[in-house]
Write the C-alpha cells for this entry.
Amino acid sequence: MPSKSPAATATRASAASKAPTPTARGPVFQPVRTRRAFEVVCDQIRQQIARGDLRPGERLPGEKELAEQFDISRIAVREALRSLEAAAVVEARTGLNGGFFIRDSNSAGLTQSVQDMVSLGQVSISDVTEARVELMGVAIRLACARATEEELNAIEADIDHHTELFRERGGSRNTKSVIEFYRLIARATHNNVILMMVDALSEIIRELLAHIDPQPRQDIMLVRRQVLALLRARDPEGASAAMALHLRKVSEYLESESQKKTAAKATATAKATAKAKARA
C-alpha cells in the first residue's frame, strides 16, 4: 500500500479541524461567508448618519438612484428602507415631495421594543414601573440642578392646562398630551438620552392604561403641583419621593385593572365554550 504524503495528511487534518463538530446540546452553524445586500445598505446609511453626512429631516435618494449607487436590485433597497423604517431611523412621507427622510432623534424604536417585550410577557409592568421610578429620580435630580425658570413655567402651564381639562371632564389618560408633564421634566435635564428614555417608558404606561380605559382623576394634578413646587425649591429628594409614590400607585392601579380585565375575558371565553358544547 502506498504511503500517505505528509502534505496530504496535513491537508486532511486542516479540513477536519475546520469542519464543525456536532454536539448533543444544540444545532451546528456554518461560518457566514457573505452578508445580505440590504444589511450593507442599512449599515452604510447608519454610518453616514453617525458621521453627520445625513442629518435629521434630510431626504434620501429615490429607490432607483439608491439601487444604482449600491449596484443592487431595487428589491434589496426596498427591504433596507423597510428595515430602517421599522427601526425608526427613517420615516416614509407621501405626496408630491414624498420619499424616505432621516427621522429626528426620538424614542419610537425603544418604545416599540419594550412594548413588544411587555406584550410577549418578557417584561412585566412592575419592571417597567421600577425602571420609570429610577429614571424619573435621575431626571428630577438633574432638573433641580439645571432647569431654567422658563422650563419650570412650561411645566406649570402644562399642569394648568390639564387641570382645566379635568375640571371640564375633558381630560383623559388616553391622549398623548397627558404624559407631556414627564417630558417637560426630562427636557429640563438638558440630556437627550434621558429625554428619549423618559418618553419611551411614559408612552408604554400610557398605552397600557389606554387599554383599560381609566377614569380621569383630578388628584393626578395635585401630585404634579407638589412635584413642581419641590422642583422650584430645588429639593430633589422630596420631588423624587413624591413622584415615586405617584408612579407606584399608577402601576398598582394598572396591574389591578389589567387582572380584572383578563379575568373577565377568561370568564366570557369559558361561558362561550360551555354554550358551544351545550349546542353540540
